[in-house]
Write a structure and sequence with these properties.
The complex is a heterodimer.
Chain A lengths: L1 H14 L3 H4 L5 H30 L2 E2 L9 E2 L3 H7 L2 H32 L6 H13 L2 H11 L6 H8 L11 H28 L4 H9 L4 H29 L3 H6 L11 H11 L3 H29 L1
Antiparallel strand pairs in A: 1-2
Chain B lengths: L2 H21 L2 E8 L4 H14 L3 E8 L3 H13 L7 E5 L3 H6 L16 H6 L1 E2 L2 E2 L2 E13 H6 L8 H15 L5 E4 L6 H13 L5 E2 L2 E2 L3 H16 L12 H9 L3 E7 L2 H5 L10 E4 L13 E8 L6 H11 L2 H11 L12 H6 L3 H10 L9 H16 L5 H15 L2
Parallel strand pairs in B: 1-2, 1-3, 7-10
Antiparallel strand pairs in B: 3-12, 4-5, 6-10, 6-11, 6-12, 8-9
Helix pairs in contact in B: 8-9, 8-16, 9-17, 16-17
The chains are: A mainly alpha, B alpha/beta.
């Protein structure tokens, strides 16, 4: 038995694998295709199809409140968008929120992560408190901060008055309302950045710092020469996630200002929601969503390209 | 078991199965907006259930603003959900819902029994698409005690109101007492805020489905409200104030005047009110030289086109929209009747004496533009009013923005 199997193995090695395994032996490329197929089909169903469908709908005039059937209008929804001041305003607001809150959350997140990584007793309370803003639903955070910033009952104005300043009607001015929203977003999202950066911090070998100590490098120099370069991959990952979610900002301004005063703090995602959910204008809403999707894809591509050139 | 036994068993089962609907309960579900006293409607439904054994009606509530309710119902109806049978709709919505095919029409219904405005709001292209639940209009609430104290008559014009507010504020020396509370937040109420002085100048926004926007009248309307903010008649954060905030402020005794719907009256007389017995209510003022105008409100009962109990649902709606129920809701829930005669009903007048004067207001109140794209029209007006009150946009720019955007929507 043993001898024959060895013999067989020897001979089969000459002739290729036995017949019963041949159907599996597809070559590396084909095997990869077969193994990836289920995931690819699933992705196609839940991601590619909706995106294609979105693009398709964006070429139609489709309003559920009109009672009229969908009508092919080509690029009309897109040309409407170009003349639509609210589209431009909400897009600009979205870009501005991204430009302010992403670096803001990165800086605060980095500071929190360094604090949570310090080797003394505050570690666990800090780590635990990091989880709280992260675990809180976005709309809930928006609701809480809407109360914080309320001109009459809010705690922020209460503190300002106690400190001898004048109270501010936060949601009456586009700038103050914008500032309140950005502060809330930074509060809500910096803990997420901190969690990812903290994971990165813990992969940095302690021996590097010990060696730097021996060489006489100070804390600041250690931070810029060791910590920051080695954290780069974690930071880029955190930035990708944060930037994409920033481009889709909806819940916090929706709950805090409802886009007001006027439409001055409305975001692109809120405008899409308004057109699709409130106006049931699915054609125009889809065209807007296509633009937001394209914007997200561009940003991701830029980041991915940045990582590739670094490597 | 032989074949015969099996056959007769099957026959018996099928007879039972088919006869079940005759004995079974019909379960209906109606949507009632949460601020319109679902608990009082429950009493009406209990009576209906008692008179119609076999029918059970459950209430679903949701949303405390017209927009929140519309958003919920939009989702339910565009999903063709069969769960809801009867929907309570803001008076601005029957036209929209009919255009979208979401409500089923009532055949051969005589609408002349109702107040003309409600017969009109519920009839679209000659079809009755919903039946009135209750009427409403905006009123001016005022502090009777304070006006009496300084010998001021209830104002007939907005200018008189501003003068009265100033006089009371100067004499009372109470920094927490504001002159006038109205709706400046970007909600449905802000549409009426814009329309009240606009209409007062004898202008209409939409006639026969065509935009008839008057730029000058719109500037005047926006200037009026902004002027109230700038001169301190209204408080600086009025752009944060929603309908129920106005109600709460007045109820807490911190406003001399308030623009609000009829529902506020009950609250002002309630146990938690600081102004019980001190409240007067009258028609909204006009611009000087203009006519007094009010915004028509009210809610309607529609039968969902996707309901699987069409006949039972329509029968229930006929009942809910009947004169008896209208009188009951007036006396027990202070909801304005949709029948002219009910305003003279003794039971009603005993419970809410001021309804005697309300009929005239409801009869002359103006409807907001009737269009299937009302949601968009409303959004344009309320966000602009909000922006003007917050000082982000000037009244002139605001009027131009409303005009440009309405032109695109109603082209």
């Amino acid at each position: 038995m043993t001898t024959t199997s060895i013999l067989n193995a020897a001979t089969s090695a000459d002739r290729g694998p036995p017949a019963w395994t041949r159907w599996l032996d597809l070559g590396d490329r084909a095997l990869a295709v077969v193994l990836l197929a289920p995931a690819a089909i699933l992705l196609a169903l839940i991601i590619v199809y909706p995106v294609l469908r979105l693009g398709y709908t964006s070429f139609f005039s489709l309003s559920l409140t009109s009672g009229l059937p969908a009508e092919f209008v080509g690029l009309e929804n897109y040309s409407l968008m170009l003349e639509d001041p609210v589209f431009w305003e909400t897009t600009w607001n979205t870009v501005l929120i991204t430009l302010i809150t992403v670096p803001g959350a990165l800086l605060v997140g980095l500071a929190l992560a360094l604090l949570a990584n310090l080797p003394f007793g505050v570690q666990w309370p800090v780590r635990l408190s990091l989880l709280i803003p992260w675990a809180l639903p976005l709309s809930f955070a928006g609701l809480i901060f809407a109360w914080f910033f309320h001109s009459e009952y809010g705690v922020v104005n209460d503190v300002l008055i106690r400190l001898g300043f004048e109270s501010i009607i936060w949601f009456n001015s586009p700038n103050w309302a914008f500032a309140a929203i950005c502060l809330t977003i930074v509060w809500k999202t910096s803990s997420f950045m901190a969690l990812i950066i903290l994971a990165g911090l813990q992969t940095i070998p302690r021996s590097l710092y010990e060696a730097a100590d021996v060489d006489g490098a100070g804390r600041v120099r250690q931070f810029f020469e060791i910590t920051l370069p080695l954290l780069k991959p974690s930071i880029v990952v955190a930035l990708i996630f944060r930037t994409i979610t920033a481009l889709q900002t909806f819940d916090i301004p929706y709950m805090m200002t409802g886009g007001g005063p006027g439409t001055s703090t409305s975001t692109l995602a809120m405008y899409i929601h308004q057109n699709t959910v409130s106006f049931l204008d699915l054609g125009y809403g889809s065209a807007l969503a296509v633009v937001m999707f394209a914007l997200s894809m561009c940003v991701t591509a830029v980041y991915l390209r940045a990582i590739r050139t670094k490597e | 078991m032989n074949i015969r036994t099996i056959a007769s068993a099957l026959a018996a089962t099928s007879v039972l199965t088919f006869s079940v609907p005759a004995f079974a309960d019909t379960d209906l579900k109606i949507f009632v907006s949460s601020q319109h006293q679902p608990d009082v409607w429950r009493k009406v439904l209990d009576k209906y259930e008692a008179a119609n054994p076999g029918v059970k009606v459950a209430i679903e509530t949701g949303g405390n603003t017209s927009e929140a309710q519309a958003q919920y119902l939009n989702t339910v109806m565009s999903a063709k959900d069969t769960n809801l049978d009867v929907l309570m709709l803001d008076v601005i919505r029957p036209a929209q819902y009919a255009a979208a095919g979401w409500t089923s029409a009532f055949e051969n219904k005589d609408m002349s029994v109702y107040l003309p405005a409600y017969a009109g709001a519920n009839t679209v292209d000659g079809k009755v698409v919903a039946l009135p639940a209750f009427a409403d209009a905006m009123f001016l609430y005022y502090r009777k005690d304070l006006l009496d104290k300084y010998g001021i008559a209830p104002p007939k014009t907005w200018e008189e109101l501003a003068a009265a507010a100033k006089k009371v504020a100067e004499s009372e020396k109470n920094p927490d007492l504001q002159g006038l509370s109205f709706q400046g937040k970007a909600i449905e109420g802000a549409v009426c805020t814009f329309l009240l002085p606009y209409w007062s100048q004898g202008k209409n926004l939409v006639e026969n489905g065509k935009l008839t926007f008057d730029h000058e009248a719109a500037v005047t309307a926006l200037k009026l409200w902004k002027g109230f903010v700038d001169t301190g008649v209204a408080k600086k954060n009025i752009a944060e104030v929603a309908t129920d905030d106005t109600r709460k402020e007045f109820q807490a005794g911190s406003a001399v005047f308030a623009v609000n719907w009829s529902y506020a009256w009950t609250h002002f007389q309630g146990a938690e009110s600081a102004v019980t017995g001190k409240v007067g209510v009258t028609r909204l003022p006009a611009l000087s030289g203009g006519e007094q105008a009010s915004c028509l409100g009210g809610w309607e009962w529609g039968v969902s086109a996707y309901s699987t109990h069409q006949d039972e649902a329509k029968k229930l709606v006929e009942y809910l929209s009947s004169e008896d129920v209208s009188v009951f809701m007036a006396a027990n829930g202070s909801l304005l009747p949709t029948y002219a005669a009910a305003y003279g009903n003794n039971e009603v007048l005993k419970a809410v004496p001021w309804f005697a004067d309300a009929l005239q207001v409801v009869e002359t109140a103006k409807p907001r533009p009737v269009t299937p794209r009302y949601n968009e029209v409303s959004e344009v007006i309320r966000t602009t009013v909000n922006a003007v009150l917050a000082g982000v946009t000037t009244p002139e720019d605001g009027a131009s923005q409303i005009e440009a955007r309405l032109k695109r929507i109603l082209r």
